[in-house]
Amino acid sequence: MTVYERARAGDLHVVDRWEDGVGWLAHPTEQGARASHAVRGDDGVWLIDPLDAPGLDDLLDSYGPVAGVAVLSSYHARDAGVLADRHDVAVHVPRWMDRVDERVAAPVERFDGSFGASGFHVQRFEPLGLWREAIGYRPDDGTLVVPDLLGSGPGYTVGDERVGVVLSHRMFPPRRLAQLAPDRILFGHGEGVFTDASAALSDALDGARRRFPRALVEQFGTNLRLLTAAMRE
Fold this sequence. Notes:
Blueprint: E1 13-18, E2 21-25, E3 35-41, E4 44-48, H1 56-61, E5 66-70, H2 80-86, E6 91-94, E7 108-111, E8 121-128, E9 131-138, E10 143-146, E11 150-151, E12 164-165, E13 184-187, H3 197-207, H4 212-231
Parallel strand pairs: 4-5, 5-6, 6-7, 10-13
Antiparallel strand pairs: 1-2, 2-3, 3-4, 8-9, 9-10, 11-12
């Protein structure tokens, strides 16, 4: 199985859908399970860490005009530039995040606490070296967006977990997130969580260290493949 499919997408698979947003996999069979999202804000639709796919514009039309593209991980430039150019909008990147500018062929606008009128408040995380991540939370509707530190895709969950902490940070999970009470959690990798999301988040953070040995045994090989493929981007 290909870790990250670099060829043009041939399919679009919707994985997350609610009144104000939608998520999709542009390459449903890749191991990395890269998920993209479109979320409606007060100024239009925001594309978050998006990958392009056939039929995407038709999907977006039902939510309204695109206000901008937001990149929330230093390794998630993806198709941000392509989609920003197509919709004549800018790519919005946290002021402190590197690697993205040189990977998008579109105007870049830097932001601090929030992007546009999306309603998301962003927390800064720097897990490792060049890996910098912005975790977004919108208190108005309880939407939490986590690009890499948490996920549901391959390499994240073990046992009955619905949310998994990435293997490299199970011993030191992002406990700042415990103060949040999300109604839904959207991931950069894997399908989102829409039922009892706060409980799933608490379980992930509280049990990350305890379940580390099992995760190490079950996920080490997968994580090594995902990391190696990501570093080539």
